[in-house]
Amino acid sequence: MSDRTATQPLNAVEAPAGARAKRGRWDRVLWRAGTLVVTGAFLLLWEALPSLGLVSEIILPKFSDIAVSLVKLVTGPIFPKHFQVTLIEIAFGFAIATVLGLVMGIGLAISPPLKQLTYPLVIAFQSIPKIVLAPVMITWAGYGIESKIGLAVIIAFFPVLINTMAGLDSVPTDWKRLMRSLRASRTQMFWKLELPYAAPVIFAGIKTALTFAVTGAIVAEFVGANAGMGYLIHAYAFQLRIDAMFAVIIALSMIGSALYFGIDWLDRRLIFWRSETA
Amino acid sequence: MTSLRTTGDATSAPPVVLEYKRVAKTYPTPQGGGIRALNPVELSIRQGEFITLVGPSGCGKSTLLNITAALIPSSEGDVLFKGSPMVQPDRRVGVMFQAPVLFPWRTVEKNVLLPAEIGGLHVNSIIERVRSVLDLVGLGEFRQSYPSQLSGGMQQRTALARVLAYDPEILLMDEPFGALDEFTREAMNIELMRIVRQSNITVLFVTHNIPEAVFLADRVIVMSPRPGRVSGVVDVPFGPLRSIEIMRDPKFTELVFQVRAILGEHE
Q: pLDDT tens-digit profile of A219-255?
């Protein structure tokens, strides 16, 4: 999940601090440029394959055609509605999953009997490939956004739950002993040590949950919906409007990236010590 | 089992602050039996004494320290702190571990303020004290730094400040400088000695380094493994404040060998 590790090897080269800072800046510029070149080459290849007739345009439309479709889609009359529906599903699915995962994870971590009693169930549920529950959710909650939120919650909830439990369980003995030697209460132990100690791991789970919530909402839309971007993809696929379909996919990927960068930004602000503990 | 004399005579010596009455530890095993981690210990420690516990892994020295701090219960016997049994951790007893155990989300100053927060003390009432202790351990300029920005030695000094700021009567240290390099460790030991001797703090210091144990201690408690037990006590008559020079003293070398001999007998 860590996109920052990609720049790490650069710093591994030992050099005097000043030179290293200068070199670091240069390295960053070079790597940015490199990233652009790779992305450009990829898009060029995408454009070239159908243009040269190596791949049928029905299978892979030219990137330029997709770009045109994307602009048409985003500026067209139907997009705002579908966009809004999917965004609401993702937002609610993610928020509910996060709260639920946190509450249950904390509950199971601080209460060994509760964990003992429910852990087999948790594991059993986690072993279900959760997208198989999409038809179940549609049957239960219908074609509206409720079933999409439901599936998003089911899929996104587990990484938060598991990471919260794992994070809270990973506090080293000496750290707890320090708190006990200071006569910390159970509440103090939790708020001043366990929760902040677990925060980086918990937040990693929350980041995963965001990506999973997007998947959950879209998959549920595939199975049965009358609105949303997944519904659009499905509809365009049926009509063999492959360029329009790809346009929606790109729009989705942009939404996903924006959300991810947003939460990553939040992560770095809230858990500023992460890179230092790792 | 081991029975030990206390040094000095009762009339002029400082009062006993810690008394071990046949303190022993057995860890239960899943099979229903038990593993003897520590055979009964009888020991009296006087106020201001610097005691080192030395021995190889598994000799029960950390167990003894944790029992003293009431962080783990003894299976038999009591540790008396000023006459009353230690049944739960006491704020007059400061503990330091091998790792500095600094919270990475707190600045140096906030780490040192942690015991105050937990004890419900007002930050204002202790902040001056905290700052002067940070100055004392040479971290005055690093109050607002985060632990990750400090060297290992500075991290342990922060941990030291965190106990010293609250005027402990007893300081329990479990190989506190064990993870530091030799030079830093030596400097830390000398600094520690200066500070605790000035404040008349009673110290129990666990180490597996024999010269270090002799250098710091008024008394070296030598411990042996399988089962963990006290196998001898060596008095170190060099007075409270020492320089690294005493290591050249033939008497020092002899004491080191004395400790080694006790350990060797029990191999």
A: 999 998 889 999 999 999 999 899 999 999 999 999 9
Query: Which of the given ranges, A20-24, B3-7, B121-125, has the highest pLDDT on average?
Result: B121-125
Q: Do A277 and B104 touch (CB under 8 A)?
A: yes
The model's pTM is: 0.83
Mean pLDDT of chain B: 90
Residues in chain A with CB shorter than 8 Å from the CB of B101 are 174-175, 178
Interface of B with A in 116-135 (CB under 8 A): 117-119
The rounded distance, in Å, linking the Cα atoms of A51 and B2 is 90
Domains of chain A with bracketed CATH? 5-60 (no CATH), 69-277 (1.10.3720.10)
Angle at B66 between CA B61 and CA B68, to 5 degrees: 95
In CATH, which superfamily holds the domain spanning B1-92+169-267? P-loop containing nucleotide triphosphate hydrolases (3.40.50.300)
Residue recorded with tokens 């089911």:
A154
Which residue ranges does chain B devote to CATH 3.40.50.300? 1-92+169-267
Q: Which of A184, A199, A276 sits opposite B118 (nearest CB)?
A: A184
pLDDT tens, position by position, A126-183 = 888 888 898 998 899 988 899 999 999 999 999 999 999 999 999 999 999 999 999 9
The answer to whether B69 contacts A181, with C-beta atoms less than 8 Å apart, is yes
Closest chain A CA to residue B69: A181
Q: Which residues fall within 8 angstroms of residue A270, CB to CB, at 6 or more apart?
A: A199, A203
Q: Measured between alpha carbons, how far is A91 from A99 in angstroms, rounded to an integer?
A: 12
User: With an 8 Å Cβ cutoff, is B146 touching chain A?
Assistant: yes
